[in-house]
Structures are given as structure tokens and as C-alpha cells.
Design a protein that fits this description.
Helix content is 23%, strand content 28%. It contains 4 helices and 13 strands. Strand 11 and strand 12 form a beta hairpin.
Amino acid sequence: MRTLVLADSSDTLPLTDRPTADDFPPLPHGLTLSDVVAVRAHQVKLGDLVVAQFSDGTGVRPAEHVPVPFLADPHSFSDCPCEGCEECDDMDAWTLAEHSRIADVGWRFLCLAPAEDDELCVIVLRNRPVAVIPADVVARAEEAASEPPVRTYGVMWSADFEATSPHEAARLAFEQLKSYAADGWPPELEVVNEDGQMTVIDLNATTEKGEGR
């Protein structure tokens, strides 16, 4: 568990470990809760990953994890681009019940993400504390996750030499290896991955001559 704070408040924001139930998938791109910061809802920026909201009130404010974290696309409630989801309809009904609430909606609430597919708009109080992973951290993690993983490969080269001893054969092999650098003609190499699969690489032709042996 982590305890987060806001710069303008003495409230305690305990962020518990993320649930592991089936409807709470892991955070994307290898991100973890150690990447999370607390901000108020009106400070959430485009592309921030919203992972939890904190309760109303003061003092200790427990976190409620978002089952599927979402990338924020903040809008004022009046500028919400959705075409009328159930959440927005409920808010409209609330304002119609008392005319004075219309002005309330504009300065008290905002939409963190408009309705999409089967998901409703995420409408929250502007000052509610929210746990997010900043957009730049998310972008770096996504870029790193798209890179191929680094693995260990064994690279072998072999050739036959006529020599009077193993030492002389090794010396002749070394001289031949040095000649590749001088004349720019690389050898054909056998590359074996961690699973024991071999690929023969002809660097001069930049092709693979065989694999899986």
C-alpha cells in the first residue's frame, strides 16, 4: 500500500494494492502503482491513465480502484461530446429537479472521459482526488513495451585449418578473423538462441540461410 498526498491538502490518501480479480486486469505496458501520483480531478490532463478515485470527505480517504484504467480526455460537463449516455441523462434529471442546480453542475463537476462503446461518461466532482499515472510516463512505458525483448544468443564461427598444433590452428583462425575486418568480407555465423534453435547468418548477404536446426 502507498500513501499519497495532495499539495493543497492535509488529507491522507491510502492507495491499496490493485485487486487481482478477473475484472481488474494488470496495468498496461508494465506500469505499476509506484508510477501513480494524486491530483484533483480538474488537474487531470489528456492522456493521463486514471487508476483510482478517492472517497468524498476529509481526513483519511480510501481509494476505489478503476477496474479497467482509462486514458483521460477531460471536458467540462457542458462541453461533454457524448450524445447522451445514462450518466449524463441522470445528471440532467438531477438539474431539472431543481433549477438552481444548473449553475452548480458547471463548476462542481467535469467529465474525465466521454462515453465510448458500452462505457458511460466518467463524471466526477472537480475537486475529488484521483490517482493517475502521468501521460508522459504512460507514453514512455508504451514505447518501451513495443521494443523487442533483449535475449542471450550464442554466436559461433568455424573453419578448417591445416596446422601442426591446436595453438597454431587458433592463431590461424585469429588471423583469418582479423582479415574479415581488413577486406570487409564477414564470415558466415551460426547464432543459437536460448531455446537452442540455430540460425545461420550470412552477414555479407544479410540473409538467414537456415534456422531451427
